[in-house]
Amino acid sequence: MAHLHPRTELSRESIFAQMSRLAAEHGAINLGQGFPSNPPPPFLLEAARRAIGTVDQYTPPIGLPQLREAVAEDLGVSPQEVIITAGGTEALHALAEALYGPGDEVVLLEPYFDVYIPQARMAGAEPVMVPMRLTDRWEVDLSALEQAITPRTKALLLTNPYNPTGSVLSRTEAEQIVALARRHDLWIISDEVYDELYFAEPPISLRELAPERVFTVGSAGKRLEATGWRIGWILTPPGLAPQVAGMRQWSSFCSAAPLQAAVAEALPVARREGFYEALRQGYKARRDLLESGLKSLGLKTFSPAGTYFLTALLPGLEAEALVREAKVAAIPGSAFYIQNPAPKGLFRFAFCKTEAEIEQALERLEGYLKKVHS
Ligand SMILES: Cc1ncc(COP(=O)(O)O)c(C=O)c1O
């Protein structure tokens, strides 16, 4: 009997989809999966309505020229170094295909964002996980990172700002990581899909420190609250964009043409009209609401400096029981670890939800904690 390749083991339902499904089944407030409750901004929606019926056919696999230019202008790079992809997810996949293969290793931090592992494995490479240090904050353990490097290591894959921890690399950390990559002659994949979502200093883009070896991943979905549009990008070191774009031509070929055109129009408007400042203010208020609420329930939180995720310790609680009984969905820390143990009681909460949803989730948690502790 014919059978599917064992690789389809990677197709199992992710914890994010599972928690969203359970949340819907149990009428829970979903602070699990990271998709915004806000609609995309009107200037983006209007641009898309204008583009449909005008920009409808294939674009080059490397992207619609006006979007490559808009991304380049926004990020201060050459359009020649920009590839448009179907979201950050396809950008990361194209890079895995272009940078490593069987016998190679890619070094990552734990906790990690879920797509990195199956993508490395689909490319035939082995992920090697280095745990972050958790004290009162999340920190990169640079000596552990260096120890994880072997002659097989091809790349370091980092996220900044970081999902799930919400941490942002300090300049010193960023410089040390780049120096380490130079010492061992490694590529760096810098996943910066949350580049506009920070609450203190703007994050350092690793590319600024090592343009010759850093591939940056970006996402219009994250920036413009349109995660279902699937528009993202890669910034490559000089001269490498055509080959990397050539890899994605064999999967999606190109991203949705009218949505590329709409994002091209929207990026300069977002910058000019202070859209990102407003976005940050809104998320900062919701972060503070969630964090102060969790603290007032006596829980330990790790304040995020970026992203719309917050990690906290809920010792003795179990994610499925939380959805079923407290009717609040959050992602258990174990979902972000495959090689090292997750800190006990770790959960990730998404605060890209309405204030009313966050308030209600806090009330439900309070009631549940009283019940389990009584
Ligand atoms: C760290 C990180 N990278 C990449 C992605 C994927 O971005 P996109 O929705 O543009 O595919 C996400 C989405 O949650 C993410 O959290």
Automatic annotation (TrEMBL):
Keywords: Aminotransferase, Pyridoxal phosphate, Transferase. Its EC number is 2.6.1.17. It comes from the Bacteria. It is an enzyme of class 2 (transferase). The keyword Transferase applies. Pfam families: Aminotran_1_2. Its cofactor is pyridoxal 5'-phosphate. One of its GO terms (molecular function) is succinyldiaminopimelate transaminase activity. Residues 29-365 form the Aminotransferase class I/classII large domain. GO terms for cellular component: cytoplasm. InterPro entries: Aminotransferase_I/II_large, Kynurenine-oxoglutarate_AT, PyrdxlP-dep_Trfase, PyrdxlP-dep_Trfase_major, PyrdxlP-dep_Trfase_small. This is Putative N-succinyldiaminopimelate aminotransferase DapC. It comes from Meiothermus luteus. The lineage of its organism: Bacteria, Thermotogati, Deinococcota, Deinococci, Thermales.
